[in-house]
């Protein structure tokens, strides 16, 4: 049986983002104003999303994961929580590899996008190591943040049509401001990552 690595899981998250949007991002805002909902993962991590998410769960190779993706008027927005077999400080999540996998996964699902990460920076948020980047491509914009919570890795990703940059930026910021992780402060992901 094939076991999924963290990298493969993030490829599937990115792929599910394009599957949800049908591989084509909307040019307009044909959707009504979203009803933001608090979504709480079984790990206790909670995030507010602009609608009811499509949820997929996987358990392979000692890693359990839950993907939460919402289709938006500009594209898609979501998060994934990965549970590891107990990551120690000397064995952190490989955020750089996971960022690369997420971008490659999106590109393999949306072959016209040619998405790439820019303005990549490492830092800390709420005391935890994180990696954040802007996403750009052929008529695509987005953001991604990966946070090493120890036993969990949290990834937040949004991708939208280029002419909807303001909506993509606004929703990404609103999601970051809503993240709460038990044992990591009440508003864990709020604000920009602090570079290290």
Task: Outline the structure in words.
Residues 1-8, 24-31 and 186-196 have low confidence and may be disordered. Strand 3 (54-60) and strand 4 (63-71) form a beta hairpin. The protein has helices at residues 6-20, 95-109, 165-178, and strands at 37-40, 46-49, 54-60, 63-71, 75-83, 116-125, 128-137, 140-148, 152-161, 194-195. The strands form two sheets. It has an eight-stranded antiparallel β-sheet with strand order 3-4-5-9-8-7-6-10, with helices on both faces. It is of the alpha+beta class. The chain is built from three helices and ten strands, in the order H-E-E-E-E-E-H-E-E-E-E-H-E.
Keywords:
196 residues; alpha+beta; two-stranded antiparallel ribbon; 3 helices; disordered N terminus; disordered C terminus
What topology does this entry show?
Elements: H1 6-20, E1 37-40, E2 46-49, E3 54-60, E4 63-71, E5 75-83, H2 95-109, E6 116-125, E7 128-137, E8 140-148, E9 152-161, H3 165-178, E10 194-195
Antiparallel strand pairs: 1-2, 3-4, 4-5, 5-9, 6-7, 6-10, 7-8, 8-9
Helix pairs in contact: 1-2
């Amino acid at each position: 049986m094939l076991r999924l690595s963290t990298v493969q899981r993030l490829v599937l998250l990115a792929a599910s983002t394009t599957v949800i949007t049908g591989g084509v991002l909307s040019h307009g805002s044909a959707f009504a104003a979203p009803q933001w909902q608090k979504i709480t993962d079984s790990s206790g991590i909670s995030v507010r999303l602009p609608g009811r998410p499509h949820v997929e769960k996987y358990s392979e190779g000692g890693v359990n994961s839950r993907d939460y993706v919402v289709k938006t008027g500009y594209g898609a927005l979501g998060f994934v929580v990965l549970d590891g077999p107990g990551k120690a400080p000397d064995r952190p999540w490989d955020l750089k590899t996971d960022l690369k996998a997420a971008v490659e996964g999106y590109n393999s699902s949306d072959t016209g996008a040619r998405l790439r990460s820019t303005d990549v920076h490492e830092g800390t948020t709420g005391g935890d190591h994180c990696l954040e980047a802007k996403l750009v491509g052929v008529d695509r914009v987005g953001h991604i943040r990966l946070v090493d919570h120890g036993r969990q890795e949290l990834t937040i990703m949004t991708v939208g049509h280029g002419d909807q940059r303001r909506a993509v930026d606004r929703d990404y910021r609103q999601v970051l401001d809503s993240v709460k992780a038990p044992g990591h402060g009440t508003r864990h992901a709020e604000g920009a990552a602090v570079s290290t």
